[in-house]
């Protein structure tokens, strides 16, 4: 079998946040039957110290440092009439690495993880192209625009429009476009009319996330409610703020010793400020998130904006915790009633209090949730459909067709009986 070039917008190791977890398991799955070459960005100095962890999966590894976007990034995006999301990942070193690997190695498949990496495709790739969008980024920015006002609403509308055009072009050049849930795939089909769109769901490592393992106690008394996630990510920031404002005060009235732990790296100033309120803990980076999940009376996932399948929900379920989730956080998860889904502050508060008042019910719900993810969400089962996509013949592309930057290079694509000019 030919080699695979795997391009990722973030180094997929250690697998300690949502996008890195998915990319890591994809890389591991693909490496079972293929020789892999990895080109990825890193934006955390700590990640650079873990590069050796990828040696078991990738024959060659090129990690390119990426600084945080600046005002100049936005200015360049405006001048070039491109999405900020793409300009932020445009890097000459990454392009040189991709071009060198394509010239030197027998690459049969180019696997793109996140649409930002599509700008590194050659103009007319002879290789099979698989594009894992994961989520529909243009829809996320459209939602930001709807909920915003003033200049930022305009910025988000612009980003949504340009990204949607980019997503259409990339899907037109790809042999397969992947999404993390069927709901996200259906939304993409509806908004782009793209074909060859598939759902490849996230899984969960139920051996690693096993409540029977031994964990370090987190200390403190009183029922513990836990939220986990990257805490400079806007939907997570908005979720914990909403919970702290709208739900937790009511919980504290009924359970004065209740605590709400916000567990995750890089908390923003707004998140850190929540720790000044009674009963709220903001941990920052922790050695092992499972310590906090094991200590939780409940896991809460009150996201108001979410795309795809939420790893934080699967992790709580795998740890046999009762999970109270918003409809947005639960969307895409085939939980078969093992999640408590509640919409709005009153309903969410009712659900939390009901489970805190009935710990046996919470324990039973958590046990059912773990059984569900074991039966439904193993990584091997979720990623198995990839194998058929890798065996399908690559589409024929004319010499001058392709995606370069975020613009379609003039040319023609033939795929099955479809033709695009």
TrEMBL record:
Keywords: Transferase. Residues 403-421 have a biased composition (Basic and acidic residues). The keyword Cell membrane does not apply. Residues 395-421 are annotated as: Disordered. One of its GO terms (molecular function) is glycosyltransferase activity. Gene3D superfamilies: Glycogen Phosphorylase B. SUPFAM superfamilies: UDP-Glycosyltransferase/glycogen phosphorylase. Transmembrane segments: none annotated. The keyword Transferase applies. It holds the Pfam family Glyco_trans_1_4. InterPro entries: Sugar_tfrase_PEP-CTERM_Stp1. This is Sugar transferase (PEP-CTERM/EpsH1 system associated). The lineage of its organism: Bacteria, Pseudomonadati, Pseudomonadota, Alphaproteobacteria, Sphingomonadales.
């Amino acid at each position: 079998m030919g080699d695979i070039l795997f391009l990722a917008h973030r180094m997929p190791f250690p697998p300690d946040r949502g996008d890195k977890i998915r990319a890591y398991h994809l890389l591991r799955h693909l490496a079972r039957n293929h020789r892999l070459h990895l080109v990825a960005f890193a934006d955390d100095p700590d990640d650079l110290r873990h590069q050796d962890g990828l040696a078991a999966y990738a024959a060659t590894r090129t990690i390119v440092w990426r600084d945080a976007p600046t005002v100049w990034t936005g200015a360049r995006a405006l001048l070039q009439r491109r999405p900020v999301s793409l300009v932020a990942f445009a890097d000459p070193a990454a392009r040189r690495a991709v071009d060198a690997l394509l010239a030197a190695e027998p690459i049969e498949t180019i696997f793109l993880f996140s649409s930002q990496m599509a700008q590194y495709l050659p103009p007319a790739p002879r290789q099979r192209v698989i594009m894992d969008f994961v989520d529909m980024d243009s829809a996320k920015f459209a939602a930001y625009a709807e909920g915003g006002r003033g200049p930022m609403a305009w910025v988000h509308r612009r980003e949504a429009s340009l990204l949607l055009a980019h997503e259409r072009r990339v899907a037109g050049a790809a042999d397969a476009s992947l999404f993390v849930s069927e709901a996200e795939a259906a939304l993409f089909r509806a908004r782009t009319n793209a074909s060859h769109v598939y759902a490849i769901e996230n899984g969960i490592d139920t051996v690693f996330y096993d409540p029977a393992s031994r964990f370090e106690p987190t200390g403190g008394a009183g029922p513990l409610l836990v939220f986990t996630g990257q805490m400079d990510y806007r939907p997570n920031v908005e979720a914990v703020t909403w919970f702290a404002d709208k739900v937790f005060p009511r919980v504290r009235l009924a359970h004065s010793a209740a605590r709400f732990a916000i567990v995750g790296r890089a908390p923003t100033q707004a998140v850190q400020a929540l720790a000044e309120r009674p009963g709220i803990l903001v941990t920052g980076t922790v050695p092992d998130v499972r310590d906090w999940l094991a200590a939780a009376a409940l896991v809460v996932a009150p996201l108001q904006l979410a795309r795809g399948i939420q790893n934080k929900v699967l992790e709580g379920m795998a740890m046999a915790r009762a999970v109270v989730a918003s409809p947005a956080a639960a969307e895409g998860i085939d939980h078969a009633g093992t999640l408590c889904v509640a919409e709005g502050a009153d309903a969410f508060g009712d659900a939390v209090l009901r489970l805190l008042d009935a710990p046996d019910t919470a324990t039973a719900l958590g046990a059912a949730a773990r059984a569900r993810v074991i039966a439904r969400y193993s990584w091997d089962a979720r990623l198995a459909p990839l194998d058929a996509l890798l065996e399908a013949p690559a589409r024929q592309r004319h010499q001058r067709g392709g995606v370069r930057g975020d613009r379609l290079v003039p040319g023609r694509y033939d795929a099955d009986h479809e033709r695009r000019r």
